[in-house]
Amino acid sequence: MDRRQPCVYMLASKKNGVLYIGVTSDLAKRIWQHRNDVVEGYTHRYSVHTLVWYELHLTMESAILREKTLKAWKRDWKMRLINEGNAEWRDLYPTIL
Question: InterPro entries under this entry (predicted)?
Answer without folding.
Answer: GIY-YIG_endonuc, GIY-YIG_endonuc_sf, UPF0213_domain
